[in-house]
Structures are given as C-alpha cells and as structure tokens.
C-alpha cells in the first residue's frame, strides 16, 4: 500500500512545498528513492520540462494533459521502479481522483499532490477536493496578505477576466486575508455598477 498526501496551497507555495516534500521523500533513512514529478501542460510559463519556484529552485518533470497517460509516457518498467510521484497544479487534471487511488492503493506509490482547493471566487476548483477522502494527510498552506501582512487564505484576481482557468503569477493573482478579499470585491462591484449606470445614461441621452 502507498500513501497520498495533499497540499492545498496559496499561489507559489505549491511548487516550493512539493519540491521540499519530494526531496525529503527521495532520501529517507539513508534509502534513496525514485521520484517523478508531473505538472499540467497548460502552464508553459517556465517551460514544459521542469517546475520552477520564484526563487529559482528547479526539478525536472513531465508536462501532461492528463494523468492517465503518465505510465505510458514515463515507461512501464520505469513506473514500476518509482517510489514517489509528485503532482503539481492538480486542479487542472480531471482524472486526479482515479489516478491517485490507483497509484496509492494498488501500485504502492507515495503520491504528493499540490493544487488549489478553490478558485478566485472561492468555489471548488477541479477535482482537488475529491481526493481528500483518499489522503493520509492534508495540509492547507497560507501566504501573507499583500495588503496588510496578515495570514492570507484566499486568492484575489487582479484582472477583469472571468474564466475559471486563467494561468498567471503575481501579475494576475495576489494572496489576501478575508477582510481584504471581501472589501476588494465590494469595491470592484461598486465600480462596475457605476460604470454600467454611466453607460445606461449615455445611451438614454443619445
């Protein structure tokens, strides 16, 4: 039997933590283990052959559209020799639950998963929450609110795009506390209402 560990992180913390956990799992009690890391091929910001933190830490990885193709891409014999599988950007994999269950329960792998449990609207993101019942442990990581320095538990989108999947870094998202998440949304909604009312007035005077 294997194990499944789930990290629910804020922004760049996911990559940093998954690197640390995979490195820790790689050499435990003087036993060197085989590790593979998977990320979604949707995120091409730092290339497709590695995951990179903002402070420059890097590990090679496989960028895939889905997890079901991992065993074939990695090689059947190589997969059998694996001890640890790290999954970054887990919210982008629709087959996350089935892969984690199979790898941990039947293949005896330790699976370390990092992904956002909620999107910028604070609603569930992808299949991430579905794997919690599978997990041996769950760690919810937080950052610091960029506006006040308090513990940040939410992600605020800075731009006006409304699609659920919008890949970006600090240029698009910022970690915020509850107070500033709510207050910024109120300000954005108020500004939107004013702009819409101005548009209506312009049309009525035309």
From TrEMBL:
The entry's keywords: ATP-binding, DNA synthesis, Kinase, Metal-binding, Nucleotide-binding, Transferase, Zinc
Gene Ontology biological process terms in this record: DNA biosynthetic process; response to stress; thymidine metabolic process
Signal peptide annotation: none
InterPro entries per the UniProt record, alphabetical: P-loop_NTPase (IPR027417), Thymidine_kinase (IPR001267), Thymidine_kinase_CS (IPR020633)
Protein family according to the UniProt entry: Belongs to the thymidine kinase family.
Pathway, per record: Purine metabolism; Pyrimidine metabolism
UniProt name for this protein: Thymidine kinase
Superkingdom assignment: Eukaryota
Enzyme Commission identifier(s): 2.7.1.21
Origin species: Lithocarpus litseifolius
Molecular function as annotated in GO: ATP binding; identical protein binding; metal ion binding; thymidine kinase activity
Reaction(s) this enzyme catalyzes, per UniProt: thymidine + ATP = dTMP + ADP + H(+)
